[in-house]
Amino acid sequence: MYWKKVFQTLSNDINEEYFQVLKELYELRGIKLGLDIIKGLLKELGNPERDYPIILVGGTNGKGSTVSTISSILREYGFRVGVFTKPHLCRFTERIVVDNREIDKKEVVEYYWKIKQAGENVSEKLGRFPTFFEASTAMAFEYFSEKKVDVAVVEVGMGGRLDATNACDPLVSVITNVSLEHTKYLGDTVEKIAFEKSGIIRPGRPTVSACSGSALKVVEERCRELGSELTLVGRDVKYEVLRSDLNGLEMNISLKGRVFNNLGVSLRGRFQAENVSTAIASVSKFLELMGRSDLEDNVLRRGLKKVYWPGRLEPVSMKPLVILDCAKDPAAAESLVSSLEEIVPGGKFTTIVSISSDKDYIRILTSLAKITDRFVLTRHGVMGRALPVENMAEVLNGLNARFDTEPTVKEAVKNTIASANNNSKILITGSVFTVGEARPLWSGEFYDGF
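RESULT FIELD:
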C-alpha cells in the first residue's frame, strides 16, 4: 500500500519526520462538526472502531478524569485498554495510549501516512479532507485495532451528536455533566448543549451520567426515547467524601445494593468524587455487558490508587508549594477555588495565569481572585490562541487586584519561583496549554511545542 512505501523511505531522524507530521496535522485544525467525513475515513480504513467495545465519555467537565479512572480500573481487571483523550498537556502522543504506553513518535508518522492516504480518498469522494480532530480520531481507532485492545475508553471532543468520536457505536455512553461551553457551536442554553451531548446515547444500551437540573431532564428524555437505561450519580450511585487533601481522596460509594468503604483515590479535589463515582458505575455496566463478575473490592481499590491524570490539582513542588491545574472555564475555576480553600487552608496564592481567547476569562479571573494575593499574567504559546494580557489586566483593575506581567509562561514561572520562599504558594492555571508549557520545568518530560 501507498503508506507502507512512504514509511519505508522515512529518514532515521524520526524527530524530523514527527515534527513534519505534526505540522501537517495542525494545519488541518478547524471545527467542522458532522459525521460524513469521519465515517468515510473509517470506512476507507476498514472500520477499525468495530473491532472492540467502546466506552464513550462526553460532558462539559471531568471527562478526562473519568476516562482515566475507568481505564485504570479496567486495567486492573486484566483488560488491554486503549485510551483516546484531548487535548494533550505536553505532546501529541499523550492522546493515544494503550495500557499506559503512549503511541511513539515513529508510530505517529506511520499511522499518519495511512490516515492521509485514506483522507485523500475521502476528499475525492466527499469534497473535503478530514480535520485535525477527525484525523486524530481515526488514527486512534486504527491504532487500537492493530494493537488488539480489549476495550477503548474514548473522550468526546466537542458536544457529542456531531463529534467525530460519535462515529463509533459505544457499548456504554457516559455524560459527566453539562454547563455552558462552546455556545457558538453547541447552542446558547444548557438545554441545547445537553441535547448535543445526549447524541452519544445509543438505543437499548446503558447510559451513565452525573447531570443535574435542566440538563438532566434532556438526558432523561433522550434515554426514554431510545430505551437506554440511565444510571444517575446522586440517585442510583451515592458517595460520601471522608477526606480531601493534597494526597487525594478517601470516600465511600454505594451502588446496586453494595457499599465500598474507605476507598483511596489518587485524584485530588472533592469535586473528583463525582467523576470517580461516574467512572465506577460505568465500569460496573461494562462488566455486566461483558458477562464478567461485578465489581471486586480489591481490584477496585488497586485501580483507584493507580489513576494518573497530571496537571489537575497537581502539586509539583512542596517548598515552595506549586500546584498545576488546567481549569479552563468558569465551572472548572470555581471547583479549583473551592478545592484549594479546603486542601490548602490559610494564605493566598501567587497565581500565574494564561487563558485562551475563546473562554469566559472575566468569570475565570473573578473566581481566581478569591484565593489570589498577586497575579502574574502571561500568554501561552499554542497556536496564537492565548488571550492578550491587556484583556486580563482590565478585568483585574476592575477587581482592584494586584498583578504583574511576563511575556511567556516559562519566564513567568522562573521569575516567580526565583522570588519565592519555602512558605510561598504558587498556582499555575487558566488553560491546558498553560499547564502543558509549565509542567516540563519540573517533570523534564518531552514537550513538542504544538
